[in-house]
Design brief:
Number of strands: 32
Low-confidence stretches: 340-349
Radius of gyration: 29 Å
Number of helices: 2
Shape: elongated
Mean pLDDT: 90
Distance between the termini: 90 Å
């Protein structure tokens, strides 16, 4: 038998195992090996992940750094955090990083050691930048993709669809509140408009769920693709943000692997100096890039890389898509995932009508078909989840209409109403356009 199992004895030490081989002619040869039996075989620790919250911050701001590490024998680990710029206070797997006064990209390094003296190391890079928390801008276009491809951003950039586009359940399980792309022919085509041809900055925000990975890249969102302007694509289980600017073409891949069948809030941001990918409200990847955005002979398209080309079709679902001509801030993304407005639900049995819509003045009328006894609570949010109005009405007027006064300094844009009447929760959406 050319193999023989060996069971180590209970005692530690050195043991010799010899093997003698003899053939049919009585000739033989032998060889031995010495085996050491020890209490345990040492293994180095493993660092699985390092997360910074937030990963993008202002100078002198603080971030919590959390490490996920393990030891083969579940023995206690020692954590040693290091940084060349800024200050870091540590408490085991958690550290608090205080950014320096100067903007830049800074590396935070971790060395983990176990009782056997073996180590593992890893690092994370954070962004320190000056930025305005609230640029005071509004989206170029807003496509909820809830049963249609209309633009609810106020600019009436209504899109068209084809190739078998259908509608399905969104991330909240509401039917017909997300567009489904079949991966072969479905698309949504935006109209030709100068409003899409901004050159300085860019942000895209959407909820997406990929149905399956394919041998080729999938292009959920594209405006001229990499050859002309920009795209968001999926390949090798990663999300890729590609820009074509006056300073060249740059790809940025997500650090996180995109899973099939899982909803993600995705934000791609370009401010003229940096490219960023955000997943579920957290900065996932970033790189430096500059230049003005290139021009495209084609309008933006969903589900294809350029209109009419089915070689890179997207197979998955999409909802709540927004285009911006400015860079979204961390507050806009992290606080609300851009459209995570509390209580926005549909399928309500009671009819709710808002008029006029769009609103050009300071008043919107709310008509509730069936008013329940008791007070009526009205809350108004913007698309970033900020509460602008919260009022209680004792009852509606005799014709069932509530007159809601809007703030005089309200910016143009999309707003949501959350109305509670008795046990009934009603929601609606309207546009303010005072231009």
């Amino acid at each position: 038998n050319d193999q023989q199992p060996f069971t180590a004895p209970a005692d530690t030490g050195f043991y010799e195992i010899a093997c003698k081989v003899t053939n049919d002619h009585g000739l033989s040869d032998s060889l031995s090996i010495t085996i050491e039996v020890v209490e345990k075989i040492p293994y180095p620790p493993v660092i699985h992940d390092i997360k910074a919250t937030p990963r993008k911050m202002k100078p002198n701001a603080q971030s919590q750094i959390l490490a996920e590490a393990s030891d083969f024998y579940d023995e206690p680990l020692d954590y040693h955090w290091q940084t060349t710029e800024g200050e870091i206070s540590q408490n085991g797997e958690t550290a608090i990083y205080t950014a320096p006064a100067e903007a830049g990209d800074y590396l935070i390094r971790l060395v983990v050691s176990n009782p056997d003296g073996l180590t593992a190391s890893d690092s994370i890079k954070v962004m320190v930048r000056h930025y305005d928390d609230d640029p005071g801008e509004t989206p170029v276009a807003f496509y909820p993709l809830r049963g249609n491809t209309n633009d609810y951003g106020g600019n009436e950039l209504h899109a068209s669809s084809g190739g078998g586009l259908s509608y399905t359940y969104d991330m909240n399980g509401i039917e017909n509140y997300a567009a489904r792309f079949n991966g072969t022919s479905a698309y949504v085509l935006m109209p030709e408009s100068d409003l899409f041809d901004f050159t300085g900055q860019l942000s895209i925000s959407a909820f997406m769920k990929i149905a399956g990975h394919t041998p080729h890249e999938q292009h959920p969102i594209s405006h001229g693709s990499w050859e002309h302007r920009y795209k968001l694509s999926i390949g090798d289980s990663k999300l890729r943000f590609t820009l074509n600017t006056s300073d060249g073409i740059m790809d940025l891949d997500s650090e996180t692997l995109i899973e099939e069948g899982k909803w993600y809030h995705v934000a791609a941001v370009y401010d003229g100096n940096d490219m960023e990918i955000w997943l579920n409200g957290e900065l996932d990847a970033f790189t430096s890039h500059t230049g003005t955005l290139g021009s495209s002979p084609f309008p933006p398209v969903l589900g294809q890389n350029i209109p009419g080309n089915n070689d890179y079709n997207y197979m998955g679902d999409m909802a709540m898509l927004l285009f911006f001509d400015f860079a979204l801030t961390p507050t806009m993304i992290s606080d609300s995932l851009s459209l995570n407005v509390p209580g926005i639900t549909h399928g309500q049995e009671t009819k709710l009508t808002l008029f006029p819509n769009p609103v050009s003045g300071d008043l919107i009328n709310i008509f509730i078909e069936e008013v329940h006894p008791g007070d009526i609570s009205v809350q108004m949010y913007d698309i970033y989840g900020h509460l602008h109005v919260h009022e209680a009405f004792s009852r509606a007027s005799s014709n069932g209409i509530i007159e809601l006064q809007l703030p005089v300094d309200l910016n143009n844009g999309i707003y949501f109403l959350r109305i509670r009447s008795g046990d009934s929760l009603l929601t609606g959406r309207f546009v303010v356009n005072r231009r």
